[in-house]
Amino acid sequence: MYIVKAEADSIEKIVDMSVRAFKTDVSVGGIEGEYPPEFDSVEWHKQMSREGHLYQAMIGKDLVGAAILFPDETKSSVYIGRIFIDSVHHRKGYGTHLMECIEEHYPFAVEFNLDTPIHNVRTNAFYKKTGYRVKKIEDGFVFYQKRRDFQ
């Protein structure tokens, strides 16, 4: 797997994947109707692409998911705004590979931050499994961080 900045002709396909992926959260502790902001908006994803934040996850020539990433100016800290794998590819280890690709894409980043709803059993278990630690719990969200030591 590798990530590249999203191509304009992939945006609608990425949004379709986003909808399928986030709607499966209901089966693992998510609440029906409580989805990430703009998860189904083509225009918002286009904006994220124009701003350089939207990446597509590829296996060979196949688009399998996406990530929305916000590095700071120095690229030493990265906020992972969102990741998703198309639901047809769930339970194949692609999410773990996507997280590894994000970390490899920012080789000098000291920390990676993200958040997820407290009630989503799948995402909370996933982030813990991939080495993220709880920083705080607030307003129904769990805030995670993963730090790298370059010694």
Topology of this structure?
Layout (H helix, E strand, L loop, with lengths): L1 E4 L5 H13 L18 H9 L3 E6 L2 E10 L5 E9 L8 H12 L5 E7 L3 H9 L3 E6 L2 E7 L4
Parallel strand pairs: 4-5
Antiparallel strand pairs: 1-2, 2-3, 3-4, 5-7, 6-7
> How would you state the average pLDDT, rounded?
92
Write the CATH fold name of one domain.
Aminopeptidase
Indicate the overall shape: globular
Low-confidence stretches: none
Distance between the termini: 28 Å
Fourth-tier CATH superfamily name of one domain: Gcn5-related N-acetyltransferase (GNAT)
Helix content: 25-40%
Query: At CATH's second level, what is the architecture of one domain?
Result: 3-Layer(aba) Sandwich
At the first level of CATH, what is the class of one domain?
Alpha Beta
Largest sheet: 7 strands, mixed
What is the H/E string? EHHEEEHEHEE
Task: Explain what the structure shows.
The chain is α+β, with helices and mostly antiparallel strands. It has a domain at 2-106: Gcn5-related N-acetyltransferase (GNAT) (Aminopeptidase, 3-Layer(aba) Sandwich), CATH 3.40.630. It is 28% helix and 32% strand. The protein has 4 helices and 7 strands. It has helices at 11-23, 42-50, 94-105, 121-129, and strands at residues 2-5, 54-59, 62-71, 77-85, 111-117, 133-138, 141-147. Strands 1-2-3-4-5-7-6 form a 7-stranded mixed beta sheet. Helix 1 (11-23) packs across helix 2 (42-50). The longest helix is centred in the N-terminal third of the chain and has 13 residues, at 11-23. It starts with a strand and ends with a strand.
